[in-house]
Every structure is written in structure tokens, then in C-alpha cells.
Design a protein that fits this description.
DUF1156 domain-containing protein; SAM-dependent_MTases_sf; 7-stranded mixed beta sheet; Antiphage_assoc; alpha+beta; DUF1156; 1011 residues; 37 helices
């Protein structure tokens, strides 16, 4: 019997829920445990498990209704979740004086805070409150839309703005459970009971859910939380610890969480007192440091002073604070002056005035015409490699490091109220004495702390894609080189006081993950962002892994111990009450022997994150203590076993892994493989891997799991996750290509038709990417039913070596599926004209169609071109920006991409030039669009537009171009012109307004044209 997820999946609503969860920032359930890359939204995991357990009935509409009710994603459920918002004034009243001063004004929240910043701020305030205070604050919520009818009328995504996430509510009401049980034949009163009953019915026991690439732990955690027995495994011990903590800290219940939090608070208080006693963060003015700013400096050949390096010397945007450098006499070291400047001068600093690193060149601050290549400064032999004993540069090293600014703060009383005052200053002699004291204190403890594992001692692996960067660019060879003496001292004190929980697993996990979070937010990789909104423009720290790399910076910020409090101290959070045999292990997926009914995996693939390299950054802080708490775990990422790349070794490893998972699941079990690629070659590769592993695809769905790309992530990033559902292939019947192609065509059309039927009016479930991915999945569904194809052994096909551009039969079938999908998806209003259009004409019109619906990602237009077999799309685009792609309108095309044709319209073409943007690109031959009737029709529209909407020149152009053939094409032209005439009405299609009017006029003239 098929399951719900094999027949349908409410991806529009799930995408909206996943987006809301992602946008929650710091208030997401698992992010507080520590940094990991690619965690899947918990709501997606919950829905996937339920969808794999819930049987499909003969009433698809009722199935969908019940599924949404269970997840509180139906209309009643979202209204139940509409708890409203706590007013800003209530948040202000609950906040500490320091938070009030920094984030709130007399009229509420200060300007400039993004929604994500607000979420993070409110989460910070909430976590600092006692349960009684939280309850009092929660009671002040005000439902913003008190009228149910008005709420239901909102699009689903807009409703969610006012709703709690499903994980934060109790679940369906008793009345709703009655409806659910009546349809499913169950007796559940909560989600865990339902999950258990569905599992008992299908497998004879509570369902067991496993993930062999558990990463940050989303899948095992959510499985345990909703009542499954969860199994999580990963080769990387950092991932293993994160997963263990999700199950055993967040899933341990409030008593254990409270005890861990209490001990962690004691540890932090003791460490803070030690730092205070040393006097390394306080000055004689009663102030305590909030931030230390450091930079690299270098003395190039021919320069008799060291040049401090930074791409900008802006310190705090809110106060116009900058750093200005001067030279006193013939001193080798320049002197920093930290001061507030006028608005005019500050704007110059924001425009990089005084920047000493520009385009990978060191620039003399006193002579901008003099510069040196950073690469050349490293020398032909490279930099000196630091040794383990190095914690600061040696005097003869190329790159030195120095402190250039400190932000001081103290609380004063003004008008009877506490007020936090901040001051930015260059370090004075006393500050430099404190710096020297820090170094002395660290050196006194360095050897002992490395031996005990309180500070890192591991070397950075050589030759890694990411780990080679700090070695090459700074000479750093050990992980502790990525931290200043002050950072090593602060982190070491914390672990020394915690002593890693003395074997207590929960306390060890809290300490280890706490110090890992500190390292992410307090290293030499943490940039200083003077304009960051969540700090009100006073300056704030970026995290070490603001991207998936290890990039040494020229200037960075260092936190005092107070700045790492929120990262180190464990704060209890509503998680799962452990309800079964939940296991987390560190193991190679090829060696697993644990049986699971459902395997849900998100495997590394193609351009995957280098987890084995990046994870070592964290592991170095607790590797020596890990085996004390987990004797069976290997405290090493075992990079040699990591599954990565896309070559034969990778494919062989993946086949072994998925064969092993298939062996360790029942015959009626299911697997879900999540991944995020739209390349047919990647689909073909993955399809063959799963095929060779003895699995067959039964469904595929695409969920939007990524928030919009910002900052360094801007670009053509994949925004959706494909959820591929698989079962064991119980028979190995042979397949033949001549039979497969028509079956694929039928399956693609059936899949698209079913998706179009499921689309909700005014709230579509699917976009073009979803339909393309559905086509790939449909091809896989057909192909993976067979044991071989045209007699070719599956594993031989997986591992065979192919020449450049050579495609497997498997890939050819998948690409054909995409072509079928493109042919099937006809823009509304062009059904009658479609069959007479060439592929390139169809491509142009489909591109206009998706543009009119707001699609701007270049990758979508490239994928579309692949489906229609168009190899050069540039001449058809007005803009090919990564996230701003626009199709050229009739007027924008002008006379470009236009070839001469014979009088009968047969299409005799000559060599032409094509225009792209403002330049012209010579073409070796005519573009296939050049001689197409559609191209000439567009030129006729342009002729109409430039002649004040007089259609006569356009009509005459068509008559002259096509001769007698004009009359046979006239009706089709009218159909196309009427479709083009509607484009100008679409949102965001302002460039088509004039051409659409012209198309409307020309259509009327052609309709009434007579011989």
C-alpha cells in the first residue's frame, strides 16, 4: 500500500513553514547547541516521517486534509497557532538595563533592526527570564488579527507571520483528533501516540528512524521528539556530539537541563571572577572592556615603518568612530588615534579612505600611489611555518599582529536610572601592559593546558581544500594559531573551571559544545562589522564561519569573557522528552548494523561542505576529553573515510552505504534521500547509485528550505531541497531503452498533471524548478524499477569511466524527461499555438512566462534552456545577472538576433551580430532564434511601438518578410500577439508595458487584415 508521501505532499505550506523556521535565527531549537552546516528544518523532518507512516486512501483530498490537521497546518490549526505578538514595550520592560540602553528607545525598538535581529534579541531576553517571568511576559501577547475570517483570507505565508511554529504548540485539539482518528482508524490523543500506532500497524513496533549522515542532528532529534525510536550516526565526532546533545540534553527533560545550566553558570561565574582578579579586562577608570580590535601589520621592502592592514578603518557607524594612523618621528610602528569625525569625513572613511588593503595589495597610508602585492610579501618560499609553541608572531615574521582599539563600558546612574556608557579608545601604556600580562599568564599555563586538553594542541591537516588557506596565508600550522593569547586564555579558563564535567556526559557535552560555540564567535576569523544592525551600529562581531571556509582576516574583533557568556553557558530549551531507544554513534555508514524502518539521509554530494576539515576547528577544543565521556568514539574526523567529491571512489562508497542501509531495513521499509541539485548529470549519478544499491524511487518532492541569499551568499544558490522517496527493489526484471522512453514520457506527464491538480487556487504549490525536478524523479521512478537496462549491469554503469561530454544511457533518459516536461508545461493562453513553435521559440516564451511570475534566478533560465536544447541564451536576455535575469523585450531586441529570410519565410539566414546589454558580440553564425517567425513578429511589435502604436509598419514588415506565407501564419500571429499584450499587466514587467500596447494594436490590425 502506498504511503501519503508517495502520492502527494503539501509542499507550498511546508515550504512556508520551513522558511519561517529558518528565519527564526537564534530561536531555532537546535542552533543554540552549536554551529553545523545544512541542518534541515525540523518541520520538514516531522512532515516527512508522518508522510512515510501515514497510509494513502482512495480519497486524496481527505488524506491531505487529515495530514494538515495532524501538523496544525490546516486552517483551524493555523488559527490555533495565531498567538499574536508580545508588544515591544513589554519586551523592553523585561530586558536588562544594558539591553534596554542598546536596543530600545523611548518609543520602543530602535530603528534599523531586521526581523532576524528582532527574533534574536527577543530570544536573548526570553532566555534570561525565570519561568515565572516568561509566563508573565507571554500573557501580554496580543493577537494582531482578531477576526477569523480576515485571518483565513490571508495567503498561507502571510498567516504564518502571526503564528507560532508547529513545534511550539501542543498539537491538534481533541475535536480535531476525533476527525484524525476516524479517518485513520487510530485512537491517538497526541502526535507521539499516533506515530506509535501507525508504526505498530506497519512494522509491528514503534517506528525506528535512522540517519547515517546525522550532521547537526535534525533528523534523529525530531524523530525522537514525535515518538519514534531514533538512531543517528556520523563519521565526524563533532556531528556525533551535536546529535547526542540534541537527544540527551534538549531531550532530557527540564530537571536535567536545569542542573546542567546551574553547573555551567557556576563555571562561568568562577571563570569571570578569575579574569577579574587578574585585572586584564578592567582599567583604572572603572570601565570594563567590551571589545578588543586587532590587525595585522607588515613592513614591505622599501618602507621604513610597519603598515597596519585593514580594508576599512571604520570602527562604529553609530558614532562616526574611525581609526586614524600617524607616525611619531621615525618610529617603526604607527600610532593609532581612535576618534569621532564629521559626517563628511566619515562618509569618506566608509568609502575606504585610508584603507591599507585594496584588491589584495598593501597600500601605504601616507602615499596611496605606493603599494605592494600581498602575495609577493609572502615571498617565493612562502611564510615561516609557526610551531606549536608559537602563540604570537616572532619579531622577524612578515606579518605581525597588534591591538589598535578597545571599546570600554561602564554603568552609571542618570536621573535615578542605570545607563551604560561606552567609549572607544586607542590602547595606552596601561592597556599594552595588560596585553603583556595576558601573554605571560598564557605562557605559564600553556603546556599544562595543552596536555589537559583545555586549549587545542592538534596540527591543522595539510593539503585540505579549506585547511591549506591559513597555512599558506599566515603560516599557521596548529588550530590554536587561529586564536589570540587573550582568546586562548579566556577559553582555557572556562574549560579549566569546568574540567569537562569530570566524566558526566551531559556536563561534558554542554562544556564541549559551549567552548566550540565560543570558538566560532571568538577567533581571529571573526570580522568586526561597524555597521551591523543588531548592535545598533555600535560595532559587532561576525562569526568565524560566516561562510564555509577558513579565511584569515587582516583585522578582527576579540571578545572579553562577558562576550562569550551566551555561547558557553547552556540554557535549557523546550525539546523532546526522551521516549524510546535513542542512539547516537560515531561510525562509518558502511559499517552500521542498526536496523531502522525508515532511513532519512542528507548525504554529501558534489560541491558539499568539507565537514571533515571545518569540523576539526571545533574538535580541537575537546578531542582529548571526548573519549573520557564516550570511550567508543574516535576523536578524529577520519578524513580518509569521508565521503566526498564526485569520482569513482565517491560513487563506490555511496553504493556501499546505501546497500548497507537497504540491508538494514524491512522489505516494507522506506528511505528518503534529501539533496539540493538541479543538474541532470548529478541526478543521473545519484539515480544510478541508488539503483545499484537495490532501491527504486517512488516519489520526489521539492521543499524550499533556504532563506533568501544575502551578503556573501548572494548568487545562484539552490533554494530547495529535493526529498526522494525510495523502497527496496524486490524484483530485478530487465528493462529496454526503446520501452523505457515512452514509459518515462507517460510518467512525466502523469506526475506533472497530478502536481497541477494539487495546486491551490491563488497559492501554487509548485514553480518551474519543482516541475523540472519532478521530471527527473519521474524518470528515476521508471528506470529504477529494472534490474538492468539493455542488458547492462547497473554497477558496471555506475563505475564506468566516460570521456568528456559522454553521457550514460541513464543520463540521456533523464535529460529526455526534462525535455518532455518543458514540452508539457505550456504557458496559459498559448495552448493552440504551442505545437507550431520551434524549441527556441518555446524557450523564449516560457522564459517570459516565468519572468512574469517573478523568477529572476539565472540558473532557472539555464535549466529551462537545457530542457529545450538551447545552447546560447545570452542574445535573448536583457540582463544575465545571477539574481536579476531579465528576458529581452521586443524593443530591447531591436534589430539584433535578426536574420534575413526569403520571401516565402523559409528562413535563409546570413551571418549576423548579436547584442547583449550595451556591447555587441560577433557570432560565428546566426542564432537559431534569428530566423524564427516569433523573432520577426517581435520586430513587427517593435516597429509598431516606435511609430506611436501605428500598426501599419509592423503589418507591412510581416507581409514583406513572409510573402504569401503570411496568410497561413496570420491566425497564429494574432494568438501570440494577444499573449504578449497581457505581459505588461504582470507585476514587475514594466519594460513590457509599451510593447504590450503595441502588440495589442498589431493584433487588432492583423485580425482585420484581408487579402
Amino acid at each position: 500500500m502506498p504511503t501519503f508521501i508517495e502520492t502527494q505532499f503539501p509542499i507550498a505550506r511546508l515550504s512556508a513553514e520551513a522558511y519561517k523556521e529558518r528565519k527564526a535565527g537564534a530561536s531555532q531549537t537546535l542552533t543554540g547547541l552549536g554551529k553545523w552546516w545544512g541542518r534541515k528544518p525540523l518541520i520538514l523532518v516531522r512532515a516527512s516521517i508522518l508522510g512515510m507512516l501515514m497510509p494513502a486512501s482512495n480519497d486524496a483530498k481527505k488524506d491531505r486534509e487529515i495530514f494538515l490537521k495532524i501538523l496544525t497546518m490546516d486552517d483551524d490549526g493555523t488559527w490555533q497557532r495565531c498567538k499574536g505578538e508580545i508588544p515591544a514595550a513589554a519586551w523592553r520592560e523585561a530586558a536588562t538595563p544594558e539591553v534596554q540602553e542598546e536596543f530600545f528607545g523611548a518609543r520602543g525598538l530602535k530603528q534599523g533592526l531586521s526581523d532576524e535581529d528582532k527574533e534574536a534579541l527577543f530570544a536573548q531576553i526570553w532566555d534570561a527570564l525565570s519561568p515565572e517571568q516568561q509566563q508573565a511576559l507571554d500573557a501580554q501577547r496580543m493577537r494582531p488579527i482578531p477576526d477569523r475570517a480576515e485571518f483565513d483570507a490571508l495567503p498561507y505565508a502571510e498567516r504564518l507571520v502571526h503564528c507560532e511554529r508547529p513545534e511550539n504548540v501542543a498539537g491538534p485539539t481533541p475535536a480535531t483528533w476525533a476527525d484524525i482518528n476516524a479517518h485513520l482508524g487510530t485512537t491517538a490523543t497526541c502526535l507521539s501516540e499516533l506515530i506509535d500506532q501507525l508504526g505498530q500497524r506497519t512494522f509491528g513496533h514503534t517506528p525506528r528512524v535512522g540517519d547515517s549522515f546525522c550532521g547537526g542532528g535534525s533528523i534523529p532529534f525530531e524523530a525522537a521528539r514525535i515518538g519514534c525510536e531514533a538512531f543517528g550516526s556520523d563519521l565526524n565526532p563533532v556531528a556525533g556530539l551535536l546529535t547526542w546533545a540534541s537527544l540527551n540534553l534538549l531531550g532530557s527533560g527540564s530537571d536535567v537541563q536545569a542542573e546542567v545550566a546551574r553547573v555551567q553558570q557556576q563555571v562561568f561565574a568562577a571563570a569571570d571572577q578569575q579574569i577579574t582578579d587578574w585585572g586584564i579586562e578592567h582599567n583604572d577608570r572603572g570601565e570594563r572592556a567590551e571589545a578588543f580590535l586587532y590587525c595585522v601589520e607588515v613592513k614591505p621592502e622599501g618602507c621604513d615603518y610597519y603598515i597596519p592592514l585593514a580594508p576599512s578603518w571604520v570602527v562604529a557607524e553609530k558614532y562616526n568612530i574611525v581609526t586614524r594612523w600617524t607616525r611619531v618621528g621615525n618610529a617603526e610602528r604607527l600610532t593609532p588615534e581612535v576618534l569621532a569625525v564629521s559626517d563628511v569625513e566619515f562618509k569618506q572613511y566608509k568609502d575606504k579612505k585610508g584603507a591599507t588593503v585594496v584588491d589584495s595589495r598593501v597600500v601605504d597610508p601616507f602615499d596611496p600611489n605606493r603599494s605592494w602585492s600581498v602575495e609577493a610579501l609572502r615571498g617565493t618560499d612562502g611564510l615561516r611555518r609557526w610551531t606549536n609553541d608559537d602563540v604570537v608572531p616572532r619579531p622577524d615574521d612578515v606579518f605581525q599582529e597588534r591591538l589598535y582599539c578597545i571599546r570600554w563600558a561602564k554603568t552609571v546612574t542618570r536621573n535615578g536610572k542605570p545607563k551604560l556608557e561606552r567609549r572607544y579608545a586607542a590602547p595606552d601604556a596601561a592597556d599594552m601592559a595588560r596585553e603583556a600580562q595576558v601573554l605571560t599568564l598564557l605562557r605559564e599555563r600553556f603546556a599544562d593546558w595543552q596536555r589537559e586538553g583545555f586549549i587545542p594542541s592538534k596540527a591543522i591537516p595539510k593539503g585540505g581544500d579549506k585547511t591549506e588557506e591559513p597555512i599558506r596565508t599566515r603560516g599557521w600550522t596548529h588550530w590554536h594559531h587561529l586564536f589570540t593569547p587573550r582568546q586562548l586564555l579566556v577559553h582555557g579558563v572556562l574549560l579549566n573551571k569546568a574540567n569537562f564535567g569530570l566524566g558526566h556526559k551531559e556536563l561534558f557535552a554542554a562544556s564541549a559544545l559551549g567552548i566550540a560555540s565560543c570558538s566560532n564567535w571568538n577567533s581571529k576569523l571573526c570580522g568586526w562589522t561597524p555597521q551591523l544592525a543588531r548592535s545598533g551600529g555600535i560595532g559587532a562581531f561576525a562569526q568565524s564561519f560566516y561562510n564555509q571556509a577558513i579565511n584569515p582576516l587582516f583585522n578582527w574583533g576579540v571578545r572579553p569573557i562577558s562576550g562569550v557568556r551566551d555561547f558557553f553557558a547552556f540554557k535549557g530549551k523546550s525539546g523532546s522528552e526522551s521516549c524510546g531507544n535513542n542512539i547516537s554513534v560515531v561510525s562509518d555508514a558502511r559499517d552500521l548494523a542498526n536496523a531502522c524502518d525508515l532511513w532519512i539521509t542528507d548525504p554529501p554530494y558534489a560541491d558539499a561542505v568539507n565537514y571533515h576539515e571545518l569540523g576539526d576547528f571545533f574538535l580541537a577544543w575537546y578531542d582529548k576529553q571526548l573519549t573520557n565521556a564516550f570511550p567508543n568514539w574516535t576523536p578524529d574526523a577520519r578524513a580518509e573515510l569521508a565521503v566526498r567529491g564526485d569520482g569513482e571512489d565517491f560513487r563506490r562508497s555511496m553504493v556501499e552505504i546505501y546497500k548497507n542501509l537497504a540491508r538494514h531495513m524491512p522489505d516494507n521499509g522506506l528511505q528518503m534521500v534529501m539533496f539540493t541539485h538541479q543538474d541532470p548529470a548529478v541526478w543521473a549519478d545519484l539515480g544510478m547509485i541508488l539503483w545499484a544499491a537495490g532501491l527504486k524511487a517512488t516519489a520526489a518532492w521539492t521543499i524550499s528550505t533556504e532563506t533568501e541569499a544575502v551578503g556573501i551568499k548572494k548568487g545562484n544558490y539552490v533554494q530547495g531541497t529535493v526529498c526522494l522517496v525510495l523502497r527496496k527493489r524486490m524484483q530485478n526484471e530487465p528493462g529496454f531503452l526503446d520501452e523505457v522512453y515512452p514509459l518515462v514520457e507517460d510518467e512525466v506527464k502523469r506526475q506533472i498533471a497530478s502536481m497541477q491538480t494539487l495546486d491551490e487556487g491563488g497559492e501554487p504549490n509548485f514553480n518551474d524548478a519543482d516541475y523540472q525536478l519532478a521530471a527527473y524523479a519521474a524518470a528515476l521512478k521508471v528506470l529504477t524499477q529494472y534490474g538492468n537496462l539493455d542488458g547492462k549491469d547497473v554497477e558496471h554503469e555506475v563505475f564506468s569511466v566516460r570521456g568528456k561530454g559522454e553521457k550514460s544511457d541513464f543520463q540521456a533518459v533523464i535529460e529526455r524527461a526534462l525535455g518532455i516536461a518543458c514540452d508539457t508545461l505550456i504557458p496559459r493562453g498559448l495552448e493552440n499555438a504551442w505545437r507550431d513553435l520551434s524549441l527556441v521559440e518555446r524557450y523564449y516564451l516560457r522564459s517570459l512566462d516565468i519572468e512574469s511570475r517573478g523568477e529572476r534566478r539565472k540558473g532557472m533560465y539555464e535549466e529551462l534552456a537545457r530542457g529545450f536544447g538551447v545552447t546560447n541564451i545570452k542574445p535573448l536576455l536583457k540582463s544575465d545577472k545571477t539574481n536579476g535575469t531579465r528576458v529581452a523585450s521586443a524593443s530591447a531586441l531591436a534589430a539584433s538576433v535578426l536574420a534575413a529570410v526569403s520571401a516565402d519565410g523559409a528562413g535563409a539566414t546570413s551571418q549576423i551580430s548579436t547584442s547583449v546589454g550595451r556591447g555587441r558580440v560577433a557570432a560565428a553564425g546566426p542564432h537559431p532564434f534569428a530566423a524564427s517567425p516569433l523573432r520577426h513578429l517581435l520586430f513587427a511589435v517593435r516597429e509598431t511601438a516606435v511609430n506611436d502604436n501605428n500598426p501599419e509598419p509592423g503589418r507591412q514588415y510581416l507581409r514583406d518578410t513572409f510573402g504569401q506565407g503570411y496568410w497561413g501564419r496570420r491566425e497564429g500571429f494574432v494568438n501570440l500577439l494577444e499573449w504578449l499584450a497581457a505581459l505588461g499587466n504582470a507585476q514587475g514587467m514594466g519594460e513590457w508595458v509599451a510593447d504590450s500596447d503595441a502588440a495589442r494594436m498589431l493584433a487588432g490590425r492583423l485580425r482585420n487584415d484581408h487579402a
